[in-house]
Amino acid sequence: MSFSFSSSSLSSPVTTTGKIPKRVFIPFTASEVDRYNRGNLMYVFHHVCLSSRGSSYGQANRPKNSQGFLLRRERLTTNLDSTGWKACTHPEGALYFCDIQRRIYTDSDVRDVKTLQTIEKCISRLSDLAKYHTITFPEPSPSQPSSPSLELVLELTKGKRKECRYYFVDVQKRLLFWMHEWIPERMYANLRGVKEPSHIKIALEMQYWMHCELYPHERTFDTAIYRELCGFVIHANAESITSDTSLAPFDSTELSKMMDIIRVLQDSIGQVNDPLFCVVARFMCIFSRIHFLNFHGQACARLDVDRTVYSSPDRRRCMSILLRMLSIFLFGAPWRYVEALRGVWVDETVNLPRWRTFVGNIINEWGGFTIYSTVMLAVDMSLLGIVHTDITAYQSVAVIATYISVVCTVGSIVASVVLTGMWRDKAENAEGVAKYMTKITDTMIGVDNMAIMFSVPFGLLIWGCVSMHIHICHSPCFSFGRF
Question: What does each C-alpha distance from 36 to 94, 95, 267, 444 come to in angstroms?
Fold first, then answer.
């Protein structure tokens, strides 16, 4: 694909005055746009006074030079319309800026003249870099002036280090690209083995749809995109119904709701509607991410949600020495839990519907253990009351066994309550679950550590039962010699 360069396209309506520090270009991706962590806060003035110029300020926090304050306020919005830039509001409420003719987007506040001058200087330098690679940007498109195939996103960083983060977008190919050599490791989401160009293309397409969701101004989707999205949702819905190991990112109920939304979208094909386009972009980004994580279209593609693409089944069955030892004392519970965990935490990825089912099952189990332990605790206390009537038997094996049973049942109750509180809210957000699992399993024994933790309520409950049985066998009240 060859491009030509036009110097006229680099003209800027902003006149640069003064010396502007040269920014260092840093490639980044749409997922790294710092929109949700800007840290912009509003100053709240408790006593508001209105000046003669029509601006207000707090009397308690009044600036020393109120006139300078007013001039600065005017400077922030000076001639923004004449520059070609436009303030846009995202459907979520975020403020961003775009030059719709040149298809340039930024979250940096270009209402500030200095920021605008810096942005324009960076655009000019990036255009020169594009010329070096025989790419025209901004590209002239007389037939469709509002729909060029190339776009640019810039973000000025704050702090001592002056950086300009950027990425280009090829709309026709649905991918991001850069003018500097760069390995976008964060784009791979720590996924190992990303080597094939076709696999990398899926990651770039995921970033493209994320870009569209972040900057939806005056975008439209055509019939081809609508049908593609319908196909993804319908296939995922059918797979979740007919397969227990479906790769679908949602359960059948959620997918049915998505289908209801998609039916509404059909009437908006080819029409400019920012909120609806955001919906399309978000859905497409989700399915692109699922395709990327599961090596869609690769020789080693994951076809079942519980299948790993890295290690053999024999290697997956390997367990640590600590787990083998503790499984004896916890009556084999860690073996069962480690297999269940390896079925939902596969290659450090989480399938949310399967994860929700797993968390729901273990919480129900812990609730059952709490009930059993409570009943056993009541029985233990009753047995202690019976044994204490015989003072000579106070130090007997039966009494010691009963106390051990009490300690184990109380420990089972406490462990069940603590684990339930820890995991009750760990089934709603896939990204949060993945981060939590990565943190908690990042040890030498991995998921084995978590399996041991899950087994504590069951193991203590069984030890309480064993101790109660010892009490019954050695208690004078149940000895045949007493009758």
Answer: 9, 11, 31, 34
